[in-house]
Input
Amino acid sequence: MSDALVVSLRVTLIALALSAPLGAVTGFALARGRGPVRAALDAAVLVPLVLPPSVTGYYLLLSLGARSWAGAWLERAVGLRLVFTQTGAAVAAAVVALPLMAKGAEAAFARVDRGLEEVARANGLSASYTFWIVTLPLAAPGLAVALAVTAVRALGEFGATLTFAGYAKGETSTVPLELYVALQSGDEARAGRLSLLLVIASALAALSLGVWGRRAGSTR
Amino acid sequence: MKLLQVACTVSIGGATLRAAFEAAAGITAIAGPSAAGKTTLLRAIAGLAPLREGTISFAGRVLSKDGAGVPAGERDAGYAPQETSLWPHRTVRQHLLPFCDAARIDALAGRLDFAHLLERRPGSLSGGERQRVSLARAMARRPLLLLLDEPTSALDRASRIAIGDAIKRDAAEYGAVVLLVTHDRAEAERHADAFVRACDGVARSVEGFDAQA
Output
């Protein structure tokens, strides 16, 4: 059971490393962008959220699987295989969780009072310096909430992972996948323990979200 | 030729304000009824609001021309907005650190009387204390163009006079052009070297605080 937990934590961490920076940048673009380009980006970001995860996994398989052009190139050029590997499971979790990071980051950046940035600019600070000392610190509590939601979603990911990365013991065998396998093989005791593990992890995440959420709501 | 030259039109809601005046080193008080566009005019000079048309130039450099202009961060101006816009996550000292050295911070804290507040955050400051910090932030780099939007409105009469004296003395040391939006006749008449009145869609130089000419 601890094997499954270790795999889950690894997959979640890699998924966060992929989705958190990309989601934060996308969220900033959504919060500050205007017009049709922003609308198109917004719709594209939401696709993995509205699609059933198994469908997302299927399209990942078509576009990044071993028989796809990109998948073949990845394996030839950098020796990276995604199907039946931990990286593949992390990519699936990252794609499915990305919308939550992006929309959470968008909300966090949108909450920052533009007047506080304008006064920095009008007093002679550069745009990038203003971002580091004003925008980012004020968005930080909201970004932390978005990160936690993203982590929980990645931890619980099942459909896209199974469809895209498949089940490989020790590689893609996260807690949700092991739970499914345990039930299939009639090991109900193990299924119960694995479920309890996810319940505890989710409860801890929900608790910390409550604390961070209150902090994000009171930036003054 | 005076340092600051303003000949432009700015949008205020559905209406416009046509501004035509020049300002030399020293304090130019800008008065006029509320919603006349004084704040928008200051924001345009700071580079935060676009011009509908016209030109703003300072010391021979064109800052804004029609729709385009030098970015706000590169105008070498100091700006204290009406709502102070202090940064909630930074202490008073951290508001000034990006702009000047420790000696300048101490000097400003003495002149504007907030030395006892340096380690506090804006959340625990009164309206008047916030205004002093906002003023210090605008003045910290010794900018040659100081844009102050009702910077002492939350202070009592006596402090308003004292802070006005401090602004005048500090700005005179580096020869700044100060645009001071104010509704207070006593403050304006004591500190201003020149007057601009914004009223009925026009902002221009006048002889005194209430002068309509």
